[in-house]
Amino acid sequence: MPLYRELTIEELKHFEQEFKEFLAVNGIDSELWIEIKKTDNNKVNELIAAFSDVIYNSVLMKMEYVEFATENDIKYFHYGKDQAELIGLESNSVSFLDNEAVLKAIEEKKASIKAYRTSKKYTQTRETELFAMIKNGCQPSDGKMFKVLEELV
Asked: How far apart are CA 153 and CA 141, in angstroms?
């Protein structure tokens, strides 16, 4: 059972070379792989699950920022080494589905925007918590909005 989730066949196709290298590191050449696929479905699933974890862990280790937006609020998260930080904004008069509109509303102070900030230490691994956030609808972010708001909130 994978730590995160198994990559789909379509996703695996994007990592074909990496999967071949993963098999080689684990002592499985192309002939042995063909044999395993023919005779041991459980082993195939175990190897795909282990490879999926390697890929997700690699991606999640590099990821620092995610965000979650609805019409009336937006949450920007920074996943640092020891803790996750959150900067949130709420308003009934600004659509948070457009970052440019949010910045404009903040700069012009025309809208009533409630801002808040908090942080928390990880209760699981950083990558596991980050994966859960993505699974629950957060989108990866470049962190620009978090950094701008960090100075304002």
From this structure: 19
